[in-house]
Specification:
Elements lengths: L18 H6 L13 H12 L10 H11 L3 H11 L4 H12 L6 H10 L4 H14 L4 H10 L4 H10 L4 E2 L5 E2 L2 H14 L13 H10 L8
Antiparallel strand pairs: 1-2
Helix pairs in contact: 2-3, 2-4, 3-5, 4-6, 6-10, 7-9, 7-10
Length: 222
């Protein structure tokens, strides 16, 4: 990246989860993002769980409990809020019982609740395919590819968007929060932690090269 690309007085903002990146480029100032406070968290959660800025009647205490487990992390508030939208109070209680068994720092396990709640395996397959291959790709093209693989991607992608697992960005491109992407890829890795060739999908080119040069394996599950 050459200095000639930027004019005098340009300010570059770098976002990363790895502070070493900032040390390598010798940035002038590091700003550590803080978690959302309880009021902000409850409002964001409510917009996704109730489609309004505050909980509906009889759901206030339950909402505050879910918000507390999210620890002020916006993506967790969005995903869990969308998952709980229009669910019964008993279903809310069931989700809370599951959250109580998850340590507060294990964000991906919280996000996985929404993945586990997808109605059928086809929706899960579409989600995992997007995690590995289609982030940043055109929605129409991805839909055509997945439909050709026997998946009902038109409705499947819509469900994932409703659950806040996938977003539509500029120019109709599929987007996904990096923590959700990592959660999906970890689900695949866990299926065969030591033998990549037995996983349903491969996304690291080193793994793909190693498998294709040493083994014969069917990596696409359809």
């Amino acid at each position: 990246m050459g200095a000639k690309l930027f004019g005098p007085g340009s300010v570059l903002i770098i976002t990363t989860r790895d502070v070493r990146v900032l040390n390598l480029v010798k940035v002038d100032y590091v700003c550590t993002m803080k978690e959302m406070d309880e009021k902000e968290s409850l409002e964001l959660f409510s917009w996704h769980a109730f489609r309004q800025p505050s909980p509906i009647q009889d759901y206030c205490k339950l909402s505050k409990k879910v918000v507390a487990y999210c620890g002020g992390l916006p993506v967790a508030l969005e995903v869990l809020g969308s998952y709980l939208y229009e669910r019964t109070k008993q279903e809310w209680i069931s989700v809370l019982l599951k959250l109580e068994r998850i340590p507060n720092d294990q964000v991906q396990e919280k996000l996985r609740i929404s993945y586990d709640g997808l109605k059928d395996d086809m929706e899960k397959d579409i989600f995992l395919d997007i995690c590995c291959f289609f982030i940043g790709k055109d929605r129409a093209e991805v839909t055509e590819i997945l439909n050709g693989c026997g998946l009902y991607a038109n409705i499947g992608i819509s469900v994932l968007i409703e659950r806040s697992l996938v977003k539509i960005e500029k120019n109709n491109k599929l987007g996904m929060h990096c923590l959700i992407r990592d959660m999906g890829r970890e689900i695949i890795r866990e299926s065969s932690a030591k033998e990549p060739g037995k996983r349903s999908r491969l996304w690291f080119h080193e793994d793909v090269h190693d498998i294709l040069t040493k083994h014969t394996v069917r990596t696409f599950p359809y």
